[in-house]
Amino acid sequence: MKLFKAVNLSFALCLIATALFALNSKAAGEDIRVGLENNLPLQGLNPQTNTPDGIVVDVLDTIAEKEGWTLTYVPCEWEHCLEMLESGEIDLLGGIAYSEERAKRFDFTEETLINNWGVVCVSSDSDITEMTDLNNTSIAMIDKDIYSIALVDLLPEFDIEATFVEVGSYDDVLHWVESGTVDAGVVSRTFASFWTEEYEFKQTTIIFNPIAIRFAATQGQHIELLNKLDQHLAAMKADPESDYYLFLDDWFGSLGNSKVPNWVGWLLSFAGWAIVVFVIAILGLRREVNRRTQELKRGNKQLQMEIEERLRAEDALRILNEVLEQRVLERTSMLEAANKELEAFAYSVSHDLRSPLRAIQSFSEILQVEYTDVLDDEGRLYVERVRTNAVMMDRLILSLLTFSRLSRRALEREEVYPSDVAQMVVDEIAHEISDRDMHIQIDSMPTCWADITLLRVVYANLISNAVKFTQETEHAEIIISARQEGSKTVYYVKDNGIGFDMRYADKIFEVFQRLHGVEEFSGSGVGLAIVQRIVRRHGGHIWTESEVGEGTTFYFTLGSKEDEGEN
Prior knowledge:
The chain is α/β, with parallel strands linked by helices. It is built from 16 helices and 18 strands. It has helices at 3-28, 55-67, 78-87, 100-103, 146-154, 170-179, 189-194, 223-238, 243-252, 263-311, 317-370, 377-405, 418-429, 452-468, 527-537, 561-566; strands at residues 31-36, 44-45, 52-53, 70-75, 92-97, 106-108, 114-123, 137-142, 162-167, 184-188, 201-218, 413-416, 438-442, 448-451, 476-485, 488-495, 542-547, 551-556. The strands form four sheets. Strands 1, 4, 5, 6, 7, 8, 9, 10 and 11 form a nine-stranded mixed beta sheet that branches. The protein has a five-stranded mixed beta sheet with strand order 13-15-16-18-17.
């Protein structure tokens, strides 16, 4: 039998005896009742001695000896531990992850015992290594466990569907993984590392939801107790020779002798790797676009020469038309295939980069918050640079995903009032410009036949551009209106901002083309490319007029309902 089965039996027997003892002790009113979940190496029953053990117990016993406290450990399943703490049946619970939601139910220490995070474990012969491999798999997890909740919320962001199987404990999770009953399981990294030799499984690179492990008490009942714990924890962590670091070394190995986590170097290396991969991917995309463009130009030039040659002979007109039609179809097919391939590649690269990027953001945040006092100024500067570049990379990835999704989204056109759409956009940004001297005029405009969701994206980008590039204008003015040119309605957004040189007018609609540096004006360089793609999908055209120092006007048209029918 596996070790965890024996532990569970001992745990159940001890539960009855200790609970009876807890009732008697509580009557005396002198002891502190501590919930004890079976979750070694944090806390639980020692399988050999059947006594409370774990780093939580070691730290509490040390502090209790100094304070003269009497501790009574009350074994309980995790969900029952939380219920007893909330109702006051126990006074204290260690090894609990801090979250804003839990802070509404319990009081927590300010000091962190250790940092922990969730990890996905699989059987030794499993091919699952990264987040996308979890699609269409079964995953064992504990109900209401903080890591389980985090993974359930995280997977839909990567378009991943999985079947979640609820079990009673982390022991059950690893047992189900080892036996092949499920494809994967979610546990804490401390539990997975501690039980590596007992179960046949392996940890994947899928890590997530870094959290602080602290002590919690019944809300409003034990403030002085938590203050004492904070005082002792702070003193122990400040002294490299204290029992705290001996306990860390006993339960987690070399971590107890390290002031800065071992994964700091890995984190910085991983950040550099991710940035290099992203840059290489972007350069590859640009190179592929240029190559395909040149191929199409050469093909079109050759086709034109063939057309001119055949036009000289009237008797070959029929043959010429057949050849021309066939070659146009072939070129169109090639162009569509090239565009789909490039869009799929952009989506795949952007999508796959978000998983390591989240790890960079999460762990750099831990490093900055939890270890800022042990880093010198240069170290803190490096951490801040990692976080800043990770945020910038995330914005670029989201822009690429939005750009690539536009071609796959089906148009849902209807009669739309552009004035109402523009007003919704202005209302959403009203709080951002409330302190600026700015006047936004929205005129009544003719209705159009458009996809209201995509038209809102058009106005959101054009209006935000106008707001951004008028930030240095003393009395900013933005006009959103329309005019008739023959049978067509021309919609426009006009501002009196900084403007630009019209020699660069064609470049502003290209992806990642910017006329101003990021340090001057924020943005990803994708917004106007998105606008142009939406307008073209509606059968319209977009152009701009601008003058340096005088402002900019963006004009666009949209195809009519009759045009859509002809198409």
